[in-house]
Structures are given as structure tokens and as C-alpha cells.
Design goal:
Chain lengths: 264, 265
């Protein structure tokens, strides 16, 4: 499969034009982060006051929501980047160029990193300005945690794109739906043992669960639990392999069944 | 772009295939949309793929472009096999369709530069400006895609498809939404491009008069099969009609069985 960086940069620039000219696209990037930071920060402060540990409670929730926005922004930016081509009926135009699937994905992911940086910066600034919580207080521990979440977010996006290729635009709801499933199951704001027993095994196999478990330990002041990070990284690799396999299958089905006719 | 209808002198082009398809078959849910189509287009040749709605034209084009995978058959574009060498093959192919809109959130010049980059043009901005000038629509460079009329959109789509000087230009209903004046300008521009660059043209159209003016050869498909292949005059004679429109209406009425076997091109 070909890989040409000029084509990757061209796709990234095309995505930049979309964000620049479509105010509604800023909702995912700015509005949701602000809403989540205010909501979970305030909940943390309220519960903390009940127990007399306001700052610690808010920090627990805010660290969770900031890290959740890494996986959310990574997934949504790539999935909506692809959706933009279906909404503007540009898919056929792209498919008849030399652009490979890998180049397209890299271009969308590249600009997705910009959107992710904006989104996570917004939620971090709000957390700092309104609740005096500094995400950077987690130190270098953030790097492996963010890396795993980034991979999981991109992998989920590939699955969502596969679903859209297979089922058509009706599946676009999964862009936000899939990631919402991770929210309760990953123990972002609570330990997994707080979940109903039947859901705990599901939570245990999710790489995100281990990322958030590791983050919670760091917020408590403990060192980064590398065993949790290792499990999360291994899980993320498995999820990425499965996602690429699924997308490849769906792309083959898309070409075989002529589903491009849904987009022209 | 010339506005005259004087034929453009054609540079000699070596007769080598830029497109070869053999035994293409495509079935959708037990309906055979394409049933063993063979097609060859040589460098500099202008070929029309004709047929009534549902004949299998667009499915055939999309297979030739690597967008749809055939159930059977082989495709070679500029010497590259599809789907294996799709990316390399598409560097030499341009495609435009009358039904495709321009992405809404791009200016015309941005759209052309984007696709110029995807096709590997080193300096796409000057090439885009020059192409807009040549087609007489330089003033549209800063317009947003959704501000254009359907005719302007089609022109920009054709510019996009020809920006990288492809060896094969594939056009699906390129003049369907154009008024006669713009359609003539497009036709003349295409003639000039094919004559000067040796670009081969494969076009579908329901405008038989346009096809007779523009194309050297017509390939009629019906029921997913090639039922006639030759010059417009040869095909009309073979069906006992005065012109291509007569052939088209004859086929649209379902008279496929009484067709004389197509000759090899």
C-alpha cells in the first residue's frame, strides 16, 4: 500500500478547512469539554464537601474526565473526519484518486491530533480555572496513559468507520454511541468493583479500565502502576489489530457490494 | 478553452491500450448488472459507453476505477492491474461525474489544490489557476463549492479530473446539467485536451448528438452486455437506424435479441 506524505498533509489540510468553516464542529472540540469539566468538577466539589475532602474528590473526577476526553476526542475527530466525506458526498472523488486508505487515515488522524489537543487543553484550562486542578500534576505518568487512550480512541474510530461503510450513514450515531459505552464500563470515576457484578468481567477486558485504574492511583499520590499500564497497552494492541481487521473486511464488503452507490 | 467547433488537429498517438477489461461480471443480490463486458480504450481514443438506465454503465465505470470489485474478470489501467496496483494506476486517471457535488466547505481553488496534491502535482496552485483561466472561469477561484451553479460545478469537476494531465479521462454524464453553450465549451475543451495531450476519453452520456460529435467509437451496453461496438455510423447501420438516438431508443424498448453480434474493435 502506498504512503505519500504530501497526500497525508493534503487530507489533514482539508480537515482543517472543515473545522475552520463549520461552527457546529466546534461543539465536540470546545463545548463538550467545558460542559464535562464544569459538571464533574462541581460534582466532585459537592461530594467532597459531604466528606470534608473537596479538593481530592474533584481531582479524582477531573483527572478522569480529562483523560476520558483524550479517548473521546481521538475517536470522534477521526470518525467525524470520515463522516464529513459522506456528508459532503466527497467519498467517490477521493476513492478515484491515488490516495490509499492508510494515507487517508493518517491525514484524518493527524488533524485529529490538533482537535484532540484543543479539546484536552480546553477541559484542562476549565479544570484549572474553576477547580484549581492541574492535570500536569500527574507528571510524566500522563505520557503512557495518554498514548494508550489515543490508540484505543483511534481503534474505536476504525470500527465506527467500518460500521458506516457496511451499514451506511444510519450508523453514524455510533460515532458518539460507542465511546459512550466506554464511559460507565471503564471505571473512569470509580473502581470497577463498584459496577454490577455482571459488568465487571466486561470492564476488566477493556484497556481503558486499566488506564483509568492507573490514573486513579497516581491521583492518590501513589507511583504509576506499570502492571496496569502494561495490561492496558497489550489490550490496546489487541483492540487495534481487531479494529484494522474489521475495517479491512468492511472495506472489502463495501467494494464488493457496490455500497458507494449510497454516497453518490 | 476554445469556443469554436472547428475540429482540433490531433497529434499522432501510438495505438497502445490505456484501458483493458476482460470478462467483467458484477452481480447484486442475484441480479447480474454486468455480464461479461470486454472493453479496450487506446491512447488518444475517445470512446462512449452508452446504454439505457440500468444497462450497467456506471457499475462498469466504477469497476474500471477500482471503486467496485468485480465478481470476475480482469482490469488493466495504463499497464497496472486492478485492484493490486490501484494507487499507481489512478495517478494516470481522471474522473468527473455530473452528479457529484463539490465539497461544501472548500473554495474552488482549495478544492483543486487538494486534488492536485492527491494526484501528485508538485505546484498545484498555479496549475489550478491556469486551468480555471483556460476554462474561462478564473473568477470562481474564491467561490465556495455550494455557491456554484450545476454547470459551474461540472466545469470545476472536469478541471479537477484533468489537472494532472491524465492518460485516461473517465467522465460519467459530464454534460447532463449543462446548457447547450456550456456543454459545447466542455466538449471543445475535451477535444482539445485529447488532441493535444493524447489523453484517452471514456465517457457515458445520454446525449447522443454530443456523443456523435465527440467520440471516435461507441460501445452500447444493454442488460450488462456489450451489444454493439464501432463508430457511430457503423453502430447505427448495424441496427438499421439513422443515428445513435435511434439505436438508443431501440435498445431502451428492449430490442436486444435482434442485435447483430458486435464486431471486435
Amino acid at each position: 500500500m502506498s504512503f505519500n506524505t504530501d497526500r497525508v498533509l493534503a487530507i489533514a489540510r482539508r480537515q482543517a478547512y472543515v473545522l475552520q468553516r463549520a461552527p457546529q464542529r466546534w461543539f465536540d472540540v470546545v463545548v463538550w469539554p467545558v460542559v464535562d469539566a464544569v459538571l464533574f468538577g462541581a460534582i466532585g466539589v459537592y461530594f467532597g464537601r459531604q466528606q470534608g475532602a473537596a479538593a481530592a474528590s474533584a481531582a479524582f473526577l477531573l483527572a478522569g474526565i480529562i483523560l476520558f476526553h483524550v479517548v473521546f476526542q481521538a475517536e470522534v475527530s477521526v470518525a467525524t473526519g470520515f463522516l464529513e466525506e459522506t456528508w459532503s458526498r466527497n467519498l467517490l472523488n477521493l476513492m478515484v484518486t491515488p490516495l490509499s486508505e492508510l494515507e487517508y487515515g493518517a491525514g484524518v488522524a493527524l488533524f485529529g491530533l490538533v482537535k484532540l489537543a484543543i479539546g484536552v487543553t480546553v477541559v484542562s484550562i476549565v479544570a484549572f480555572a474553576l477547580f484549581a486542578f492541574e492535570i500536569t500534576s500527574l507528571g510524566l505518568s500522563l505520557i503512557p496513559l495518554v498514548a494508550v487512550l489515543l490508540f484505543v480512541g483511534w481503534s474505536v474510530a476504525l470500527v465506527v468507520i467500518g460500521l458506516i461503510l457496511r451499514l451506511g450513514q444510519g450508523a453514524e450515531i455510533m460515532t458518539w454511541g460507542f465511546i459512550a459505552l466506554l464511559l460507565p464500563l471503564s471505571g473512569i470515576f470509580y473502581p470497577v468493583n463498584a459496577l454490577p457484578g455482571v459488568l465487571q468481567p466486561v470492564a476488566d477486558v477493556l484497556p481503558t479500565t486499566h488506564v483509568f485504574a492507573a490514573a486513579q492511583e497516581v491521583v492518590r499520590g501513589d507511583p504509576l502502576p506499570w502492571d496496569e499500564v502494561g495490561i492496558a497497552a497489550g489490550g490496546a494492541v489487541v483492540v487495534a489489530i481487531l479494529a484494522v481487521w474489521y475495517l479491512t473486511r468492511m472495506l472489502a464488503t463495501f467494494r464488493k457490494r457496490g455500497y458507494i452507490s449510497r454516497h453518490i | 478553452m476554445t469556443e469554436s467547433s472547428t475540429p482540433v488537429p490531433r497529434a499522432p498517438v501510438p495505438r497502445e491500450p490505456v484501458l483493458q477489461a476482460r470478462g467483467l461480471v458484477k452481480e447484486y443480490k442475484r441480479v447480474r448488472a454486468v455480464d461479461g463486458i470486454d472493453l479496450r480504450v487506446d491512447a488518444g481514443e475517445r470512446v462512449a459507453l452508452l446504454g439505457p438506465n440500468g444497462a450497467g454503465k456506471t457499475t462498469t465505470l466504477l469497476m474500471l476505477l477500482g471503486v467496485i470489485t468485480p465478481d470476475a474478470g480482469e482490469i488493466e489501467v495504463v499497464g497496472k492491474h486492478l485492484p493490486r496496483d490501484r494507487s499507481a494506476a489512478m495517478e494516470q486517471v481522471g474522473f468527473a461525474a455530473g452528479y457529484l457535488p463539490l465539497p461544501e466547505r472548500l473554495r474552488v481553488e482549495e478544492f483543486l489544490v487538494l486534488f492536485g496534491r492527491l494526484y501528485g502535482i508538485p505546484s498545484p496552485a498555479p496549475a489550478a489557476a491556469l486551468a480555471l483561466e483556460r476554462f474561462g472561469i478564473a473568477e470562481l477561484a474564491r467561490a465556495m463549492g455550494n455557491e456554484l451553479s450545476s454547470g459551474q460545478r461540472t466545469l470545476v469537476g472536469i478541471i479537477k479530473a484533468t489537472l494532472h494531465q491524465p492518460r485516461l479521462l473517465v467522465l460519467d454524464e459530464p454534460t447532463a446539467s449543462l446548457d447547450p453553450d456550456v456543454a459545447r465549451r466542455v466538449r471543445n475543451g475535451l477535444e482539445r485536451l485529447c488532441a493535444e495531450e493524447g489523453t484517452a476519453l471514456l465517457v457515458t452520456s445520454h446525449n447522443m448528438v454530443e456523443v456523435e460529435r465527440l467520440c471516435d467509437r461507441v460501445v452500447f451496453v444493454s442488460g450488462g452486455r456489450v451489444v454493439a461496438d464501432g463508430t457511430a455510423a457503423e453502430v447505427a447501420t448495424r441496427f438499421g437506424r439513422d443515428d445513435l438516438e435511434g439505436v438508443f431508443l431501440h435498445l431502451a424498448d428492449g430490442h436486444v435479441a435482434d442485435v447483430v453480434q458486435p464486431e471486435a474493435s
